[in-house]
Design goal:
The complex is a heterodimer. By secondary structure, chain A is α/β, with parallel strands linked by helices. Chain A has 14 helices and 18 strands. The two termini of chain A are 34 Å apart. Chain B has two domains: 5-92, Beta-grasp domain (Ubiquitin-like (UB roll)); 95-222, Orthogonal Bundle (Fumarate Reductase Iron-sulfur Protein, Chain B, domain 2). The longest helix of chain B has 14 residues, at 201-214. Classes of the chains: A alpha/beta, B alpha+beta.
């Protein structure tokens, strides 16, 4: 039986794997794609650390900025830990070989890492690798995992977490290539499956698969989720394709202009404020643009080469010469699996959760740019170490195959049923519904109407299924299961948003535009088993 | 208003099938349009839509492209990547290709603290833009005759690490790329021609050859090559050993 089973092979999962292996654990990493296909690759702007390489900075300032952005919903101890671990984390990444952008200051090691400005930050503390920071961190972690001979179970789709008396014993997976449902026993689990911003299908910067599979599995296994209503809308995604244009474009001096050529907001305010300002312009029928022309072609190619290429390909504009049409879309889920200060899941012993899928209460009501890459690497290692520690005393008796049999039956049922409703259309509808009614500006009657629609979709789920009945490599089946998970999470987001009659950070509600001290708390949801 | 469609052809397991798709879409969006509305069994790999996750590479009209970056045109023929076992339709098995990374030992071996500068950053900037999409592997003609060739992306990665000033032990990487490695490349440049990130594996391999020589290696095929010595195969016209 493996000591630590890590579910999810992105930045958080790979960091956990390296830390657990280093500590002495046997490790296995399961992911539904290949590690380098992960969402982490899409992160552009940077990873925060109060190194003070380009200007004076202090860990205390990093903590203060993070706490301020969280609007009262962070756990200060966790923020403290993350920000204090940041310089060491950059040192670790640099030692592993991450090809950071460098400044010419004659120093060595992490002191040569270039840092720039992100929104809501009191100093230039986002370490970056051009505008490919996530990609280059992810690939370096992957190369080190190959070096450490970490065992990978690629193309394994998480079905359920196996628990016995509230203790995690492993998980069931669908082996995508063979179509077989398998059970992997483990002494300790780390869920690092990413966020759920793809609920906003069609209106998100995220990749197709960011459907919160791990969050849904934890709910089903009796774990708790919290702050589900806090979804960050990134201010600048390309208008037609919803592809991300990093905050660092503004950090480097880019302006936001409306179609009248006016700047209407301080571009470096935290994302929730900027997103709302842009949204207000759009509501008034004014298009919004990102203006990078004054940066000059040379600088653009040096610091934002990826974005220049994306603008040309997807919007047919050259950022050096033209304005870039943008709109805010769903980008990041602050909420997720409720964990304690050791990142252990509230409700499931021996199961840890880390990264965007978790709510470690460091981002609170709104995440700062550059703090997500920090969370996944710093806390990824922390989760790996803690999972190893748990595994030392965990039982090595494998779980029964009850969950495995349930899952085999459930999958067989999906194959045998004839679908009368096309779930792909429902996926598109759900995305549009969420963007319109559970979006940047919310309102109770709209939220309630959205909840009714979602419940109706859930009632109709038995009429949905797969048209492709092949056993092996069935992408249709995986996408159906992903949609089922999104549909499971949808009401948790809406009902929490309904319950929160205030505006705080990324959650803004008409009629309740101020923060309410009475609501300075987390809304926690957990399934309770009904005793017969 | 009547929707205008265009016809594209897709290589599936047994046959080439034609489909009608909307205009103005990327190939990835078109594939999803087909899957969602016409044929749910069409299988392909999809990811970020933004050319950075390396998932969606295919061949269009014989050339490797990322589905998410290719604007569909009338009559496009879409096929899976070459030299990869086809799992289903356009989805291929990337495991054999990925194994080249471990065989190359493309990672930082022994890390040392280094005084890195902006110039050092530029040394490996392009090579680290690699998204492991396998386009270069698919385009490389060496795989038609040598399935054990390490291939362009593994060698680019080897170059990236041997050029990194933090690498104390570049020799161990160089030693791993001598067999089925740098000397097996034909320097045809197909890899460079298809890389969606503009990386030049051909140049990286050329540089690695130079580094290999510095570490005392040489081109093994040159050493065993026969030019028909001693007479270049043509005969001297007399017996050089017969004496006078």
């Amino acid at each position: 039986m493996v000591d630590v089973l890590i579910i999810g092979s992105g930045g958080a999962g790979l960091s956990a794997a390296l830390a657990a292996k280093e500590a002495g654990a046997s490790v296995m990493v399961a992911g539904k794609m290949y590690p380098t296909n992960s969402q982490t690759a899409m992160a552009q702007g940077g990873i925060n650390a109060a190194l003070g390489n380009v200007e004076e900075d202090h860990i205390a300032s990093h903590i203060a900025d993070t706490v301020k952005s969280a609007h009262g919903l962070c756990d200060e101890q966790m923020v403290r830990k993350m920000c204090a671990d940041a310089p060491l984390t950059i040192d670790w990444l640099n030692t592993l070989g991450v090809p950071f952008s460098r400044i010419d200051n004659g120093k060595t090691g992490k002191e040569t890492v270039a840092q720039h400005q992100m929104g809501g930050a009191s100093a230039k503390r986002a370490c970056y690798a051009q505008d490919y920071t996530g990609l280059k961190i992810l690939h370096t972690l992957y190369d080190q995992c190959l070096k450490a001979k970490i065992a990978f179970l690629d193309e394994h789709y998480l079905l359920n977490i196996i628990t016995e008396e509230g203790v995690s014993k492993g998980a069931t997976f669908l082996d995508i290539r063979t179509g077989e449902v398998v059970q992997i026993d483990a002494k300790s689990l780390v869920v690092a499956t990413g966020g759920y911003a793809s609920l906003y299908h069609g209106f998100t910067t995220n990749a197709y698969g960011a459907t919160g599979d791990g969050v849904a599995a934890v709910l089903r296994a009796g774990g708790a989720v919290s702050d589900m209503e806090f979804i960050q809308f990134h201010p600048t995604a390309l208008k037609h394709s919803a592809i991300l244009i990093s905050e660092s474009a503004r950090g480097e001096g880019g302006y936001l202009l409306n179609c009248d050529g006016e700047r209407f907001v301080d571009e470096l305010k935290p994302r929730d404020e900027v997103a709302r300002a842009i949204f207000a312009q759009l509501q008034h029928g004014k298009e919004v643009f990102l203006d990078l022309r004054h940066l000059g072609e040379e600088k653009l190619m040096e610091i934002l080469p990826q974005e220049v290429a994306l603008c040309k390909l997807h919007e047919q504009v050259d950022p050096a010469r033209e304005l870039i049409p943008i709109k805010p879309v769903a980008h990041y889920s602050m909420g997720g699996i409720d964990v304690d200060d050791a990142l252990e899941v509230n409700g499931i012993k021996g199961c840890f959760a880390v990264g965007e899928c978790s709510n470690a209460k460091v981002h609170g009501a709104n995440r700062l740019g550059g703090n997500s890459l920090l969370e996944i690497t710093a806390f990824g290692r922390f989760a790996g170490e803690n999972a190893y520690k748990h595994s030392i005393y965990a039982s090595s008796r494998p779980a029964k195959d009850t969950q495995l049999q349930k899952d085999r039956t459930a999958i067989a049922k999906i194959y045998s049923k004839k679908a009368s409703i096309n779930f792909y259309e429902q996926r598109t509808n759900l995305g549009k519904l969420f963007y319109e009614k559970v979006g940047i500006v919310r309102e109770n009657s709209q939220l309630n109407s959205a909840l009714d629609t979602v419940i109706a979709m859930q009632v109709n789920l038995p009429k949905m299924g797969i048209a492709d009945k092949a056993k092996e490599n069935n992408q249709n089946l995986i996408e159906f299961l992903e949609f089922s998970n999104a549909l499971l999470l949808a009401p948790t987001v809406i009902s929490a948003a309904i319950a929160r009659d205030e505006s705080r950070g990324a959650h803004f509600k008409l009629g309740f535009e101020e923060e309410s001290e009475a609501l300075r708390k987390h809304i926690v949801l957990q399934w309770k088993r009904e005793e017969p | 208003m009547k929707e205008v469609y265009m016809k594209i052809d897709i290589q599936r397991d047994k046959t080439i099938e034609s489909f009608n798709v909307s205009q103005g879409l990327t190939l990835l969006a078109a594939l999803y349009e087909i899957k969602e509305r016409q044929d749910a069994s069409l299988t392909f790999s999809a990811g970020c839509r933004a050319s950075v996750c390396g998932t969606c590479a295919v061949r269009v009209n014989g050339k490797e492209v990322l589905s998410c970056a290719h604007k569909v045109e009338e009559g496009d023929l879409v096929e899976p990547l070459q030299y990869h076992p086809v799992l289903r339709d356009l989805k291929v098995d990337k495991d054999p290709a990925k194994k080249t990374l471990a065989r190359t030992e493309a990672w930082l071996h022994e890390s040392r603290e280094a005084a890195l500068t902006h110039k050092d950053e530029l040394l490996t900037e392009k090579q680290t833009d690699c998204i492991l999409c396998d386009s270069c592997y698919s385009a490389c003609p060496v795989f038609a005759v040598n399935p054990d060739f390490l291939g362009p992306f593994a060698l680019t990665r080897a170059y990236r690490y041997t050029s990194d000033k933090r690498e104390e032990n570049a020799k161990s990487i160089i030693d791993h790329i001598q067999t089925n490695g740098v000397w097996d490349c034909t320097l045809c440049g197909e890899c460079t021609a298809v890389c969606p990130k503009g990386i030049d594996p051909k140049m990286d391999i050329t540089m690695l050859r130079g580094t290999s020589l510095q570490f005392g290696h040489s081109d093994p095929s040159f050493a065993t090559q026969s030019f028909g010595t001693p007479d270049f195969g043509g005969g001297f016209g007399f017996d050089p050993n017969s004496g006078f």
